[in-house]
Design brief:
This protein has 8 helices and 12 strands. It is an alpha/beta fold. The protein has a 5-stranded parallel β-sheet, with helices on both faces. Strands 6-7-8-9 form a 4-stranded antiparallel β-sheet, covered by helices on one side. Strands 10-12-11 form a 3-stranded antiparallel β-sheet. Helix 2 packs parallel to helix 3.
């Protein structure tokens, strides 16, 4: 990960902005700020930040609306920081393109860890024919998965599911998003169906399926491919 990365903080609370500035500068992140949605759009387009921290409770527009507008062109990580803590709010934000979601108040150490994961995943996830995660390799062109050099036999659906999660490594994907992308709109409510396939994949690619380190469950929300 390159040093002195630029982080845009879109939040109308002065105390939160000050806290984030102190916390992030200690880890050599450069910070700049926007107090509302309009300023956030301008700042994102002007400064091209490596990552955006976005509050949902902005004075001039809802943060989810801003998230949607940013995702029309901004492709780098966006992490939501919000006092909203309902499952519905979290799922909505992730479905609309957020990479992660932290509920206020949060611990600085956890935020730094989430930022590092999001940035690292973005750097690793390029248009490459192969993805490597430890002893697991995924050939995206030939649809071949290997673990410790041995071919892992997957069905076409299992490969599609694994490829989707791996390409979004470090990002929480909701049940509905995964179901839509892999199976289609007719399966949006079939979360049990998804759990069965996740369990099958874990048996094939995890060293210990009962304690997974690659296919991580985000309770009530979805799954994250961790590495």
């Amino acid at each position: 990960m390159k040093e002195n990365m630029n982080i845009l903080i879109i939040d109308d609370e002065v105390q939160i902005r000050r806290l984030l500035e102190i916390s992030l500068s200690a880890y050599e992140f450069n910070t700049f700020f926007a107090e509302n949605g309009k300023q956030g759009l301008v700042a994102a387009a002007t400064h091209h930040p490596d990552l955006i921290l976005l509050d949902l409770g902005l004075p001039d527009m809802d943060g989810l609306e801003l998230l949607v507008r940013l995702r029309e062109w901004y492709t780098k990580p966006i992490i939501i920081l919000s006092v909203r803590n309902s499952e519905e709010d979290i799922v909505n934000a992730l479905d609309k393109g957020a990479n992660d979601y932290l509920t206020k108040p949060f611990r600085s150490g956890e935020l730094i860890a989430r930022i590092r994961v999001a940035i690292r995943s973005g750097e690793e996830r390029k248009d490459t024919p192969s993805l490597e995660f430890g002893d697991l390799s995924i050939d995206m062109i030939n649809h071949v998965v290997r673990k410790s050099g041995d071919i892992v036999k997957l069905t076409s659906t299992e490969f599609s599911l694994l490829a989707l999660l791996a390409k979004n490594s470090g990002r929480v994907l909701t049940h509905q998003f995964i179901l839509k992308e892999v199976w289609g709109y007719g399966y949006l409510e079939q979360t049990q169906y998804l759990r069965v396939f996740i369990a099958q994949l874990r048996k094939k690619i995890e060293d210990n399926p009962a304690n997974p380190v690659l296919l991580i469950t985000e309770s009530g929300i979805g799954y994250r491919f961790g590495n």
